[in-house]
Design a protein that fits this description.
Helix content: 40-55%
Mean pLDDT: 93
Shape: globular
Strand content: 5-15%
């Protein structure tokens, strides 16, 4: 039941982001949605993540924190293992 629970949340979050300029990356077997934001900003991942958190009110993690320097440049991840009301607020702000 847990897999179906998270798949439903993933599908809901992905559907909510589909109308944005974020490029959705595959998200199988995880409760994180990675997105490429290069169509939105040329900020570094760290700066973009901090901007999203401080100005938009949605926390994001720069994927580059997990890779060697320069391997990833414009990808952040969002966690969708949240209450539906939290996801709704995040999607509204990210739109």
């Amino acid at each position: 039941d847990l897999a179906a629970f998270y798949q439903k949340k993933r599908d809901y979050f992905r559907a909510g982001l589909s109308g944005t300029r974020f490029k959705l990356l595959p998200s199988d077997g995880t409760y994180f949605q990675c997105v490429d934001y290069s169509a939105i900003s040329d900020m570094s991942e760290a700066d973009f993540s901090m901007w999203l958190t401080r100005e938009i009110g949605v926390a994001a993690i720069p994927v580059s924190a997990f890779y060697a320097q320069g391997a990833v440049k414009t990808v952040v991840r969002f966690c969708f293992a949240k209450h539906d009301t939290t996801l709704d607020k995040a999607l509204e702000r990210l739109a």
